[in-house]
Amino acid sequence: MQSLLWKIGGEAGFGIMTTGLDFAKIATRQGYQIAGYMEYPSLIRGGHNTYEIHISVDKLHSSKYHIDVLVCLNKETFDLYKKRLSPDSIVFYDKEMFEITDQNITALHLPLKETLKNENAPVFMMNTITIGASMAVFNWPLEVHHAMIEKTFGKKGEEVVSINKKMSQIGYDYVKQHYPDKSFPAFQARKTDDTNLVMTGNDAFSLGALIGDCRLYSAYPMTPTSTVLTRMAEYAEKVGIVVRHAEDEISVINTALGSAFAGVRSSVGTSGGGFALMTESLSFAGVAEIPVVIFLGQRPGPATGMPTWTEQGDLLFAVHAGHGEFPKIVLAPGNLEEMYSLTAEAFNLADRYQTPVIVISDKHVNESIWSTSKIALKLFSKSYEVDRGKIASEFSNLQSQISNYKRYQFASDGISPMLIPGLQGHFYQANSYEHIEDGHTTELSKSRVQQVNKRNKKEITYLKNHFKGPEIIGDINTSDVVFVSWGSNKGSILDAMQLLKEVGKTTSLIHFTHLFPLDEKAIQKVFKLKKRYILIENNSHGQFGRLLRQQTGIDIEEKLLKYDGRQIFREEIIDYLKIEM
Amino acid sequence: MSTIEEFSGYSPTWCPGCGDWGIGAALKKALVDLNYSPSNVLVVFGIGCSGNMNDFLNAYAIHSLHGRALPNAIGMKIAQHDKPVIAIVGDGDCYGEGGNHFMHACRGNHDITVIVHDNSVYGLTTGQVAPTAQKGFKSKSTPGGIIELPLNPLTLAVSQGATFISQGFAGRVPDLIELIKKAIQHRGFSLVNILQPCVTFNKVNTYEYYREKAYDLPQDWNTGNFEEAMKKCAEPTSIEKFPLGVIYQVEKPTFTDELPQLKEKTLFQRDRFTDLDSLLGEFE
Question: Are B284 and A195 an interchain contact pair (Cβ–Cβ within 8 Å)?
Fold first, then answer.
């Protein structure tokens, strides 16, 4: 797999994030595929930020260990990442800032500070010079960077655009002049009519929610889902939705339950701590049978934990969240394509089953970037159909008699017709108390049992009609090793499988997206062969392994668990298998 | 025309003599007078003796969790802002468990009517102290008398931006009907704090107590003066007097007024957004 990794690092607050994203788009605009991610502390200024972009001709799923180009905007970047360099790597630095004495490192000085001084330019323009320099070592046409500058800075006026172009040119020319032999052998991007879009998992969630006709999004800012709130708020007026940044997560989910009761598809987003505050209301949604989609982006806990890093430590919490017994569906996207499609699907499931649906992801999916096919996204959007199940504003659309409407009417599939408030001649209450068929409160044992049984039937109906078994990638029959995983680990596992294949080692992956409830019989069939199954999770308890055992009796003994706040890298999977590459 | 009967659900289970009877009757009469039917009002009930009105009042309704009625009401209003939204809550419910929501609902000038049954005790859990109880009030949870000062919902509402602040007394149903009507008709956040004697668990704030301490605002009371309203609202705290009537009312844009996307149609009635292509440019 031919690929290059470009990484930039510097002090927080100096535009590293924008620069990284722009560099990714410079690559995709030429037809390359990318996978990138950023690291940043829970600070606004003074910490250390990095952004790395993995670039390839074919679809990429994750980053890699070896850095090909390291752009150091400070000494810390070099010190932190020199272990990932080889003599083939190129390091850009400014000797006015710090010296690199190691003879095994290809260190290329760029006159960053001097140029800023000569041109009287602000400090963040250093980034632009380094992109120009990077274009030169990649042998990429500089006009692609200049077009990107026009897009990024166009709104700020011609002067800003032209000084940025000048900085880019200076960086490019300096490399061509001083280091003419330092460049990577070109690998051509494929010609295609498609466009590679660059977006984060949060962007894909936002688009998926709009495709799914989400009309109300409520949230309280919390990493790693804050950028869904800001993205949806940016879209709200244009697309005709309402975004409420409420006072706390309890208000967030109850706002959504109010609007969902009144007929609009509603969603909330949060992370573990905010979700903890929502759980009482999750249970309320369960008994009152109000559809809601909850986006839970995980980060390392407990409590405040490591706010800007990644983990999959909230799966069992999500599955078991809420007091009492009620049906709930948990879906876990592992990449952009699964994110937008499962999100849109979550809105259909919430409506069909009139119960909460949790879309669980992790910071690595939420905030990392990938390239994704524009054609495929548009095709999905076009083919998606809003299915509200038994929710309707008029009786002609409801499987119920007009004369005797009962909100919680018994149904063999557990799903009662839900009348959207407003139809003349009718009324009902959605009740957090146990209730009889028409919604009135009850404490009678017979009514209680009937309603519990009715709600429980939804799970059976879901497993029969909408549960999806795991995706199987590769051929289990011929595999030496079978990985079992969920969520963002998919990317690194797929890339590891590709590398292993190149050295003749056959592996496969059982990737789960529909995590709860699990269909025991269907899943037992998937695991019928005696194989070396390895559970890969980004937590210390092997939570999905526990869930799998609880729901299906399948026990995966061998586990590769990582819980240092970082995602699993493809090299770590290969190292674990002790295979020499 | 609708009738009281149309709004009447089950027979109330409130204690004989409870102030909630008066509030329930006044609310139904107000809705009939305003020519609403159970099919075109949205109601949220909190949890407590007040929230138990869920089974006694017919409407499109949510019987919510303790403390959470206001955010439910806000969500309902955002979805269908063409209908009145009423929250039936208690003082422990709305000022204790849901206190944070109360402050922020005032700030947002959400066009909802909040009817608070203020009896200074938790009746449904058999008589513990509530946030509006006077200092020293002895209850099951404060046998030595409550240490904290009473919360003043009126000053809180004024200071946080509520645009309609009123107080009623459960013992004066005809006045209560008029007050509730005005509150529902007001565009913006409206508070009706109703002094409601709990005959079972509160032996201090009785009907007699309020007959002595509550008084009607003068006919010519200027409801538009913020500073005067603040002073008036402070009276329960400063001089143990309880003004009755509309203390403060100003016209300001409501939360949904401020949303251009809701100008033509309600959020529920709007067409689905389908022009995804128009959003994709920035990802290239």
Answer: yes
Q: How would DSSP label each residue in A347-364? A: HHHHHHHTSEEEEEEEHH
Cα atoms found within 13 Å of the Cα of residue B272, Cβ hemisphere only:
16
Q: Measured between CB atoms, which of A235, A264, A429 is closest to B267?
A: A264
Residue of B71, B80, B275 lying closest to A251 (CB–CB) = B71
How far from the centroid of its chain's Cα atoms is residue A146's Cα?
30
pLDDT at A40: 85
For the domain A198-383, what is the CATH code?
Answer: 3.40.50.970
Residue type, A52: E
The CA radius of gyration of chain B, in Å to the nearest whole number, is 19
Please give the CATH topology (third level) of the domain spanning A471-576.
Rossmann fold (3.40.50)
Say yes or no: B204 contacts chain A, CB-CB below 8 A. no
Apex B188 CA angle, B183 and B190, nearest 5: 35
The torsion angles phi and psi of A9, rounded to 5 degrees, stand at: -145, 150
Ordered structural domains, chain B, with CATH: 4-256 (3.40.50.970)
Could you tell me the residue ranges of all domains in chain A? Answer: 3-178, 198-383, 391-465, 471-576
Task: Read off the pTM.
Answer: 0.97
Q: How many Å apart are CA A77 and CA A70, to the nearest integer?
A: 8
The H-or-E segment that residue B96 falls in is none
Write the pLDDT tens digit of every residue in A404-455: 899 999 999 999 999 999 999 999 999 999 999 999 999 999 999 999 999 9
Contact between A276 and A347 under an 8 Å Cβ cutoff? The reply is no
For A:428-457, CB contacts with B below 8 A are 428-433, 440-441
Tokens 């999770």 found at: A537
Chain A contact for B124, CB < 8 A? no
The contacts of residue B179 (CB under 8 Å, 6+ apart) are: B166, B168, B192, B245, B246
Helix (H, G, I), strand (E, B) or coil at A149: helix
Please state, in angstroms and rounded to a whole number, the distance separating the CA atoms of residues A331 and A329: 7
Residue B197 · residue B205 · CB < 8 Å: yes
Phi/psi at B246 (5° precision):
-85, 115
CA torsion sign for A27, A28, A30, A31 is positive
| CATH topology match: A3-178 vs A198-383 | no
Q: What is the pLDDT of residues A106-122, one digit of tens each?
A: 999 999 999 999 999 99
CA distance A564 to A364: 13
Q: Taking the alpha carbons of B23, B82, A440, A353 in that order, is the dihedral positive or negative?
A: negative
Residue type, A137: V
Q: Name A53's bridge partners.
A: A6, A36
Q: Assign domain A3-178 to a CATH class.
A: alpha beta
**Cα dihedral across residues B55, B57, B59, B65: positive or negative:** negative
Quick check: A428 and B61 CB within 8 A? yes
Kindly state whether B61 is in contact with chain A, defined as any CB-CB distance less than 8 angstroms.
yes
Neighbouring CB atoms inside 10 A of A61's CB total 22
**CA separation for the pair B193, B14 (Å, rounded):** 19
b/e per residue, B242-269, with b = 16+ CB within 10 A?
bbbbbbbbbeeebbbeebebbeeebbbe
Answer whether A421's CB lies under 8 Å from A391's CB. no
The predicted-structure confidence for B157-191, as pLDDT tens digits, reads as follows: 999 999 999 999 999 999 999 999 999 999 999 99
Whether complex ipTM tops 0.90: yes
Distance, CA of A118 to CA of A107 (rounded, Å): 23
Strands (E), A261-363: 266-270, 292-298, 329-331, 356-362
Phi/psi at A270 (nearest 5 deg)? Answer: -165, -175
Distance in angstroms (rounded) separating the CA atoms of residues A346 and A328: 11
Can you point out the beta strands (E) in A457-531? 471-473, 481-486, 507-512, 514-516
Q: Which structure tokens are listed for B99?
A: 């206190």
